[in-house]
Write a structure and sequence with these properties.
alpha/beta; binds thiamine diphosphate; 6-stranded parallel beta sheet; binds magnesium ion; globular
């Protein structure tokens, strides 16, 4: 049989040698199936050859997606995890395979995404000798993982894998790395296996302390200008329905964080939109002026708060968070509630929550909204990116899953693609990793094959992982890739314009590839759209077509994202609020 396989190395339907002994790698594959993994994103190499061989022989139920770069694999796994709620699984080889994952692991850590990442490692006998493709994965990933392991005894593999899936997906989700030396995946394991785990030091508090719930509501009764800040914790806890009920009952307005978008319907009358550096005037002024701020599952990140001296200076703060380390980290908190967001909201709903008498506050916010809405202008030089984003919303009925890259494109998507549904949004918030948006869309489409997936990218960031285009062709994924092409690293250019006297140092991309030809070379339909009067037809055709499209939209090159809280300023000191 082996000889036959050698004669045709490309063949993929060789009958496996059923009598080969079961290895640590075979055991690993069985464990992935036990955990109902349906998709693995990865890339092979020397140290994981036994695992890839076991996968091949097992004819696994799960699909393995061979991305063309390990960073593509991990960003895809993040997109998959974000829109499905399931744990994303990644495999990479030792050394360069593992180090290519580092940005993605950090990204998942910052944005609390559940991932289990398997890295190959050199055999135990040569660890520490600078062996070929050796890298200290445990050392490198310790500060960027929720937990990490190196498997020392093959009999521990079941326990370690079970623990990893548990840790990644419970409490505040996050990435867990399992480093597997080659001798472990090649070992011929004999029981007894260690399957059970006992983690006395890891027992996330999921239910709120009832006294804290009482305190939170007592403070609410006294508040005249209450406000809810809803973060991604609402989405992770699957608490959008409970949040809506609580808001409608109490009539408290809601600001969403960038990562929390969709956790409360963006078009709801009590939604003030996104807060933060590029938040709406209404949202930011509400955070500045409120007298009671209830944070549900957000971490008061600096892009949201601006200068801390001016953040919610008149407010008493309550903070519901499953991660106690977040409470009081940046903002003095009067009422800490360590809890899962859904459990806390259920506890609040079980109490007698009355609509509050704060009509004046709501009137004031409505007035702000009417006087100072988000605004933009059209120009002759190209398509207005804000208007285009609204058009994309219109053509998808606001139902698409949207993944974004980082920069201006991300902020316009956040401002203008109003999300009414949860878990339809994947963006790199904490780390702000360019190159995220496109592979994340691939993962999202694989996880939710029946949904429309739109990936909004800059011309810069798209070029950081465009090698994954081949997957659209290969897997026939109908992802619609939008490039907001401003021939610039637009967000950098904007900061240079505003804060560095227009010294455009290395931010102008006057040499870009022909994105249409590029797409076509990967077997994907490419279109270029140069003026606003072509937009409707282009979008109509794109969404009617049952396949992948890359669309190069020529936007106004100098367009800026406004309003902006300049670095170091308070959230009430926005620039560009008015035309
Ligand atoms: C990996 C990485 N490198 C650098 C940056 C810094 N950065 C933030 S936005 C930006 C410009 C992005 O340009 P483009 O992708 O064209 O998006 P635009 O802002 O023009 O929409 C850069 C370089 C980053 N966020 N990530
Ligand atoms: Mg750009």
């Amino acid at each position: 049989m082996k000889a036959e396989a050698k004669m045709n190395p490309q063949t993929t339907d060789i009958t496996p040698e059923v009598n080969e002994p079961r290895t640590g790698a075979d055991l690993l594959i069985e464990l992935l199936e036990e955990h109902n993994v349906d998709t693995v994103f990865g890339y092979p190499g020397g140290a994981v050859l036994p695992i890839y061989d076991a996968m091949y022989r097992a004819k696994t139920e799960f699909q393995h997606i061979l991305t063309r770069h390990e960073q593509g694999a991990i960003f895809a796994a993040e997109g998959y995890a974000r829109v499905t709620g399931k744990t994303g699984v990644v495999i990479a080889t030792s050394g360069p395979g593992a180090t290519n994952l580092i940005t993605g692991i950090t990204d998942a850590m910052m944005d609390s995404l559940p991932l289990v990442i398997f890295t190959g490692q050199v055999a135990k006998t040569v660890i520490g000798t600078d062996a070929f493709q050796e890298s200290d994965v445990l050392g490198i990933t310790t500060p960027i993982t929720k937990y990490n392991y190196q498997v020392d005894d093959v009999r521990d593999l079941p326990r370690v894998v079970n623990e990893a899936f548990h840790i990644a997906s419970t409490g505040r989700p996050g990435p867990v790395v399992i480093d597997i030396p080659k001798n472990i995946s090649e070992a011929l394991p004999e029981g007894p296996f260690n399957r059970e785990y006992n983690l006395p030091g890891y027992q996330p508090t999921t239910k709120p302390n009832p006294m804290q719930i009482v305190k939170l509501l007592e403070a609410l009764e006294k508040a005249k200008k209450p406000l809810i800040l809803a973060g991604a914790g609402v989405l992770f806890a699957d608490a959008t329905e409970e949040l809506k009920q609580f808001v409608e009952r109490s009539q408290i307005p809601v600001v969403n964080t960038l990562l929390g978008l969709g956790g409360f319907p963006g078009s709801h009358p009590l939604s003030l939109g996104m807060g933060g550096m590029h938040g709406s005037y209404t949202a930011n002024m509400a955070m500045y002026e409120c007298d009671y701020l209830i944070n549900i599952g957000a971490r008061f990140d600096d892009r949201l708060t601006g200068n801390l001296d001016h953040f919610a200076p008149f407010a008493k703060v309550a903070h519901i968070d499953i991660d106690p380390a977040e409470i009081g980290k940046n903002i003095k908190t009067a009422i800490p509630v360590v809890s899962d967001a859904k459990e806390a909201l259920k506890a609040l709903l079980a109490k007698d929550v009355k609509p509050l008498a704060h009509g004046e506050w709501l009137d004031q916010l409505n007035e702000n909204n009417e006087k100072y809405p988000l605004w933009y202008e059209h120009a002759d030089e190209g398509i207005s990116p804000q208007w285009l984003t609204k058009k994309i919303h219109e053509h998808t009925n606001g139902d698409a899953i949207v993944t974004t890259d980082v920069g201006q494109n991300q902020m316009w998507a956040a401002q203008y693609y109003t999300l009414d549904k949860p878990n339809n949004w994947a963006t790199s918030g904490g780390l702000g990793s360019m190159g995220f948006g496109f592979p994340a869309a691939i993962g999202a489409q694989l996880g939710r094959p029946d949904d429309i997936v739109v990936s909004i990218n800059g011309d810069g960031g798209f070029q950081m992982n465009l090698q994954e285009l081949i997957l659209l062709k290969q897997l026939n994924l109908p992802v619609k890739v939008i490039i907001l092409n401003n021939c610039a690293l637009g967000m950098v250019r904007q900061w240079q314009e505003d804060f560095y006297d227009e010294r455009y140092s290395e931010s102008l991309l006057d040499m870009n590839p022909d994105f249409v030809k590029l797409a076509e070379s990967y077997g994907v339909r490419g279109v270029i759209v140069e003026s606003e009067d072509e937009v409707d037809k282009a979008l109509e055709e794109m969404f009617a077509y049952d396949g992948p499209v890359v669309a190069d939209f020529r936007i106004i090159p100098k367009e800026r994202v406004l309003p902006i809280v300049a670095p170091g300023k308070g959230i009430h000191q926005m620039l560009g609020v008015e035309k």
